[in-house]
């Protein structure tokens, strides 16, 4: 049997899981239901006999996060397609389908989001086998989850008759937008409607044909972007201008709601899109009082709460059905029943220009990460960690000088043509305007404290003269 090609879509931002999930580090890169991240969980479901090398479509800014996290799984080294801008799922799927069609038009693609939870993987694989049969018969198959509650946060699929050519797979009668509470209750009682999981199975040729028929402007723009793609280390960088010309549209609106080839395989696999803090409460083990506590958390006389801390001791007394999430720079408190309204808060933070809306205090870079510790008038202090064998760009600053103190590991500092070797508890001064670069030549992570002093301390005061990672 020809292997199934897993296609992992990793372009989401997970706004409703703020303050944990933000644009700079969205929910697929966090461990939410186990000690593995959601991206890693997704990749591990498509490993072993019957599965080909995966394709991952992700935001260009997350390329090194994706590569690093997938290296820690048993999945084969993926082909990673980089989106220069987000354009929703239809252009991302078009890129993967066109890439695969050039190699094997009959290959079956299994398209899935990087941030969903699935508890019953054997049941998932059984449903996948049924879906593949229908896909080889020319269908585009979605997975319909058996509803367990009158959920208003999901779209629904009304299932039609079973397909003669694919036992266990049914035609799609219609797609239904997210319903109100009364209609969702009717759907649950009626038994004909399924939650739309956003997973699809189809051949590359079928996807391309239906995109050509119903969304030719998407296919044309993505085709040009793929023709102009460039290899960059382990990545395929899609042509920026052409990809930006693609309409921003989901595969549901672009194709699935229009095609006669739509089919659905009903499945009970313990699926959740983890689209809110309430859904995380439902997915996690709870104590006798119905609480979920993760991290340094203490609860007293509280029931039905979800409390998570990423480091700071968080105490909760006398609360019921409440969500409390604590990160290093933000705290969220709300009734669990208002979980879908987090997006309203994030929109307000964005409108007021708060960086916490989209950025974490810890910022990831191709070479490692940094995080702000203290900021004052004309100075700030950061902690920088550089992975073994990695180095920052050769750069200079117009508005600030820097002091570096090594606290762990070994550093090579290039300063105005001079190479300086630093070990633990040794330091170097980088005057305003000097050309410099930091490198970790060792086998362990390099950690240092950086003190910046100057009139302007923004991250855009960097003039890159040379960069290993192709940044300007």
Automatic annotation (TrEMBL):
<keyword id="KW-0808">Transferase</keyword>
<feature type="domain" description="Nucleotidyl transferase">
    <location>
        <begin position="6"/>
        <end position="287"/>
    </location>
</feature>
<dbReference type="Pfam" id="PF00483">
    <property type="entry name" value="NTP_transferase"/>
</dbReference>
<dbReference type="Pfam" id="PF22640">
    <property type="entry name" value="ManC_GMP_beta-helix"/>
</dbReference>
<keyword id="KW-0342">GTP-binding</keyword>
<dbReference type="InterPro" id="IPR011051">
    <property type="entry name" value="RmlC_Cupin_sf"/>
</dbReference>
<dbReference type="InterPro" id="IPR014710">
    <property type="entry name" value="RmlC-like_jellyroll"/>
</dbReference>
<dbReference type="InterPro" id="IPR006375">
    <property type="entry name" value="Man1P_GuaTrfase/Man6P_Isoase"/>
</dbReference>
<dbReference type="InterPro" id="IPR054566">
    <property type="entry name" value="ManC/GMP-like_b-helix"/>
</dbReference>
<dbReference type="GO" id="GO:0004475">
    <property type="term" value="F:mannose-1-phosphate guanylyltransferase (GTP) activity"/>
</dbReference>
<dbReference type="InterPro" id="IPR001538">
    <property type="entry name" value="Man6P_isomerase-2_C"/>
</dbReference>
<keyword id="KW-0548">Nucleotidyltransferase</keyword>
<protein>
    <recommendedName>
        <fullName>mannose-1-phosphate guanylyltransferase</fullName>
        <ecNumber>2.7.7.13</ecNumber>
    </recommendedName>
</protein>
<dbReference type="InterPro" id="IPR005835">
    <property type="entry name" value="NTP_transferase_dom"/>
</dbReference>
<dbReference type="InterPro" id="IPR029044">
    <property type="entry name" value="Nucleotide-diphossugar_trans"/>
</dbReference>
<dbReference type="InterPro" id="IPR051161">
    <property type="entry name" value="Mannose-6P_isomerase_type2"/>
</dbReference>
<dbReference type="Pfam" id="PF01050">
    <property type="entry name" value="MannoseP_isomer"/>
</dbReference>
<keyword id="KW-0413">Isomerase</keyword>
<dbReference type="InterPro" id="IPR049577">
    <property type="entry name" value="GMPP_N"/>
</dbReference>
<feature type="domain" description="Mannose-6-phosphate isomerase type II C-terminal">
    <location>
        <begin position="353"/>
        <end position="467"/>
    </location>
</feature>
<feature type="domain" description="MannoseP isomerase/GMP-like beta-helix">
    <location>
        <begin position="299"/>
        <end position="349"/>
    </location>
</feature>
<comment type="similarity">
    <text>Belongs to the mannose-6-phosphate isomerase type 2 family.</text>
</comment>
<dbReference type="GO" id="GO:0004476">
    <property type="term" value="F:mannose-6-phosphate isomerase activity"/>
</dbReference>
<keyword id="KW-0547">Nucleotide-binding</keyword>
């Amino acid at each position: 049997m020809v292997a199934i090609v897993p296609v992992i879509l990793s372009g989401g931002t997970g706004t409703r899981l703020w303050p944990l999930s933000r644009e700079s580090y969205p929910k697929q890169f966090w461990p939410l239901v186990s000690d593995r991240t959601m991206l890693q969980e997704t990749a591990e479901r498509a490993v072993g006999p019957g599965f080909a090398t995966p394709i991952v479509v992700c935001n260009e800014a997350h390329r090194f996060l994706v590569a690093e996290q997938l290296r820690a799984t048993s999945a084969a080294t993926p082909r990673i397609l980089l989106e220069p801008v987000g354009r929703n799922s239809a252009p991302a799927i078009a890129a993967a389908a066109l890439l695969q069609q050039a190699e094997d038009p009959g290959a079956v693609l299994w398209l899935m989001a990087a941030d969903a939870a699935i508890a019953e993987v054997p049941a998932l694989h059984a449903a996948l086998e049924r879906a593949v049969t229908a896909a080889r018969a020319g269908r585009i198959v979605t997975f319909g989850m058996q509803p367990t509650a009158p959920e208003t946060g999901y779209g629904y699929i009304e299932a039609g008759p079973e397909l003669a050519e694919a036992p266990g797979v049914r035609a799609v009668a219609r797609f239904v937008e997210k319903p109100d509470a009364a209609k969702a209750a009717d759907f649950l009682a009626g038994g004909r409607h399924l939650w739309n999981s956003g997973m699809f199975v189809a051949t590359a040729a079928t996807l391309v044909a239906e995109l050509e028929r119903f969304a030719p402007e998407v296919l044309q723009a993505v085709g040009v972007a793929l023709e102009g793609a460039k290899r960059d280390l382990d990545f395929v960088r899609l042509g920026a201008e052409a990809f930006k010309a693609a309409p921003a549209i989901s595969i549901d609106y672009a194709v699935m709601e229009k095609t006669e080839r739509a089919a659905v395989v009903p499945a009970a696999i313990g699926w959740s899109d983890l689209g809110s803090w309430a859904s995380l409460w439902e997915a996690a083990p709870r104590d006798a009082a119905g609480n979920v506590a993760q991290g340094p958390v203490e609860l007293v006389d509280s029931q039905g709460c979800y409390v998570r801390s990423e480091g700071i001791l968080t105490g909760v007394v006398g609360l019921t059905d409440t969500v409390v999430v604590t990160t290093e720079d933000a705290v969220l408190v709300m009734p669990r029943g208002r979980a879908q309204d987090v997006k309203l808060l994030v929109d307000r933070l964005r409108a007021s220009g708060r960086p916490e809306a989209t950025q974490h205090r810890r910022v990831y870079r191709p070479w490692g990460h940094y995080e702000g510790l203290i900021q004052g008038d004309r100075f700030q202090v950061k902690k920088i960690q550089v992975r073994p064998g990695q180095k920052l760009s050769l750069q200079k600053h117009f508005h600030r000088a820097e002091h570096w103190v090594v606290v762990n590991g070994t550093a090579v500092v290039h300063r105005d043509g001079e190479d300086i070797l630093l070990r633990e508890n040794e330091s170097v001064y980088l005057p305003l305007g000097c050309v410099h670069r930091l490198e970790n030549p060792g086998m362990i992570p390099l950690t240092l404290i950086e003190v910046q002093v100057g009139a302007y301390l923004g991250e855009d005061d960097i003039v890159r003269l040379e960069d290993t990672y192709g940044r300007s």
